[in-house]
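Recap from last week: sequence in, structure out.
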Amino acid sequence: MTSERGIHRAGPALLGALAPATFFAVDPAGWYPFGPVKWLAVTVLGFAGVAVVLATRPVSLPRPLGLALGAWLGWLAVAAAVGHDPIYAWVGTPERRLGVVTWVLCALLLVAGSSLRVADSADTGTATAPSASNRRRIDADGSKPTGPETGAVLGGLVIAGLGVGAVATAEALGWEPDVLDVGSRLTATFGSAAYLGAATALLLPICLGVALTVTLPRPLRAGAAAAVPLLLVAGVGSGARAAWFGLVVAALTTAWAHRAMLVAHPRRAAGAIAAGAVLIAAVLLVTPAGARLSSLTDPDAPGGRGRLDEWRVAARVAVAHPLTGVGPEGYRIAFAEGVDARYERTHGRAQQPDRAHAAPLDVALAAGVPGLVAWLAVVVLVGRRVLRGLRHGSAWLVGLAAGLVAHATGQLLLFPLVELEPVAWLAAGLVVAATGGASASRRWVVPRGATLALSAAGVAALIAGVTEVRADRRAGDASDALARGDHTAAAIAALDAVEQRPDIVRLHVLAAAALVADEQGTLAGIRELDRALDVSPGDPIVLLARARLLVDRAAATQVPAHLERATDELRRLLADDPHNGALWREASRLALVRGDDDAARDADERADALTPPDRWAR
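Predicted structure tokens:
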């Protein structure tokens, strides 16, 4: 009995650990310190937690929501099967991770969250009556007690808020280890100011709601109360306008849901509005937030009016592929279909665009219009429960619902994040569980084979994740060796990384650079890039790197066959991507090698016309 009870409680505990483990994970020894280790935490804890939850309790999910989830995932699989990337469409690129696997995990976390009991007894599974003290508190503030299952997840979210807020605040005060020093704005443990802002938008309302729920344990409430000011610092210091927009919408939506109470207490409402206005004014005047807002009108500022250019290009690609989109992770390949000279001239491609900076556009690109409709159905069905929680829930539930409103509206100006989306979908499952009755949900027992498959997925994620972390560390060694000029050591470390994870394209690109630097010849580099193209045939970064090596080899050997091969390759690439300034620069180099000065001059002019001025260089 004791062991069964322990297994029963293990599922919520694993799900509760998901947010802090994912948000805190950083690998200082890694080449990408914020990537592989977070993916390891997401997949292992996610699949393990879902497997235990679904193996130890019946699934409870509203039938319409279940149908919408099935339609979304089914059509996404179809889009992946015919998409632009044959492998990464399923598993996700190592940089973004938004393949079918991640979306399946998100759906499973929603199902698992909706199957947890909000107020329960761990022994019997029946609702427990509140204690006398809790009854008095319920009479005072209308809140309901939560059970240990919900409490475990809420506790994890509060711990995540405390940790992220504390690190961001320490950054603001001047403490910033090298691994966290990745920009002028606060990034905490995410390596990105935008990602930190998105996490803050989700966590801040949740922590505020938990802090105001008197029926929750005092240590949990105290931790949540301490997290609120820290998260405010993180949110402001991140300069993430999408997060600010989400939080403002969440605040307005919550106020509208409780408008009757505000009308009944006009003085309190007016005082709260005045205090909020003063706080916002102070933030805009004293912090860099004012400058971030003013740059919205700058057509050349990242995330300003230039965001419209990104939407224009993405929409053009989405319209060209209305049925199945370009498949998950296919936009970086199809980007060339939508880019025009104006975008290239203004923004360039120092960083290859791989997302649309708007969640609905991202989904339409990944799965076409049918996929977008199915995804929107999921959002609407969950959104109805969220609004119900905002109107009638206790304080912790209002905070959870408000956090999801902030997250969803912020995504309109950002994009889905693998570091955050699983946690948000788990939180959405809690809201579904807390706002629905048994009659509104379909309940069934998951077959044993399915839970065993989920357990196997967790084990596979553990093995693959640990291997990727090791490979990423070796890649970090290679990068450091290249920087200090030890090319032989760089080549050895890079090849070791590739052998551990040959499915990661960027490792092949690093190995190619190390091999060439070690004077093993351009042919060795080209072969390594060919191995990368075996994984992702249309990857634009690999294609550009390979074209450069082909030109280098033609220049070094002057062999007619090498000249012809480089010429054919550049001609093909430019036919597919005529607005790529970097490709035109390589065409100019090749023309000089061939002795065609006129062609070199024409290609240079094309490259100049497509290259952002230095003052706009990213």
